[in-house]
Every structure is written in C-alpha cells, then in structure tokens.
Specification:
It contains two helices and ten strands, in the order H-E-E-E-E-E-H-E-E-E-E-E. The protein has helices spanning 2-20, 113-116; strands at residues 41-58, 67-70, 72-85, 88-92, 95-104, 117-134, 141-154, 176-189, 194-204, 223-237. Strand 6 and strand 7 form a beta hairpin.
Amino acid sequence: MKKFLVYILLFAGLFAHAQLGTRIFGRDPIINLENFDKQRVHWGYYLGFNSYDFKIDYKTPPATDIEVVSTTGFNVGLVGNLRIFEYLDLRFEPGLAYTQRNLRFTDPTLVEEWDKLREVKSTYIHFPLLLKFSSKRTGNIKPYLLAGVSRTLNFDAHEKAKDDNMTGANFRMKTWTNNWEVGAGIDIYFEYFKFSPSIRGVFSFDDELIRDNDPNSPYTGNVASMKTRGVFVNFTFH
C-alpha cells in the first residue's frame, strides 16, 4: 500500500506538470483531435510497469508474518475502446505482465538460508474488461476513472507440478485467477495522437496458493489464503 501511495503521488506530479504546460495546455490552447472521442470504436496499445504483492491471511496468528519482497515488472498490451455514451466507454485491454515476488519465511524449523527464500516468478496474460468514466474535456486534458473485472492466466503457476516447496523445486499457484480493478488516468490530446497515462490497482478475488503435499509444511501449512495485489502504471497511445 505504501508503494501504491508513492505511485499516486508520482502520477499526480505528472498531471500537474501536464496542466502547467504552456504550448498545449495554456489558457487558450489549440484544440487537438477535437472529434477523436466521437468514434464508436478506436484502438490503441500500452506500455508500462507493475509492482505485485500478496495479501496473506493465516489460520492462526504467526510469530512473524511471511515477508513479501516486490520487484518492478513490465506490461505491454492492446486497447479496444467502445463508446457507449459521451462520458462512458467500455474497454478491453488484453496484455502481458511479467513480475517476480520473493517470499522470505521465518518458520523456526527452516535453518538454511536457501530454505527460507522462495522466488515466485509470474508471466501473466491479463484480460481486463473495464468501464471508463470520463469527465468533461477541458482544453486538451480529460481525466477519467476506471473500474471493472479481469481474468488472469499465469504461465508460471506450476499448478500441476508434483514437486513442491519441500523439495525446493516449485512455488505452486493456481493457473487462473479472477480480479477486480480500479484506477484513474488522464487523456492528453496532441496534434496526431492521444496519450493516456494511468495508474490502476488489481486485487484478486481468489486464494491462489496450492498447498504443499505435507499439510504441516512450514511454507503453506498455516496459510489460510494468499491473494495477489498489484499496481499497474500504463502509458497508452491511441
């Protein structure tokens, strides 16, 4: 959540910088792409980065929580936009997201350092279906909110692998998960294209953890649920 707040502050700074631009965002700017949003359907693509985390709940309160160390991954994908009303659009944004989370376990039965650390590498195919709620356009700027649901396919889930954490081979997760998403962005209209930076939170509905074969495993025995949380910062071009 601290990282999420940092991203919001960075995004706000970008928005402030855009508002202060004199060439495109001055008091009397030249209106770019005036009829762009009147299209029934339009397409685009996005590039960006992500930071994934886990929300872990326990069966009984542990002496020390499992530590989740996030890394910065990347996103790339396509955007299909369907205009419903003047201020409401339906968006489909299929894409690829790569990330890694490192889990550090503090169970006293784990002595060796390599036993305490498990890497969770994930390559996701992400299928979000979102509603875009736009404000009234002001000059060449139009803020918006996003909300919707998504389904995710994890190519690195190892769901059907027989070896588990006790062998040090695989950290097993479910292949398919369902999420809800919420975010905000800004449409910035340039002479030849529309640029839309955005920030979005992704929150899994599902417990994604596949338990170890031993029900008393120090890695999964006390875990009631493990759900993905993520922050996406995307830069979309239309």
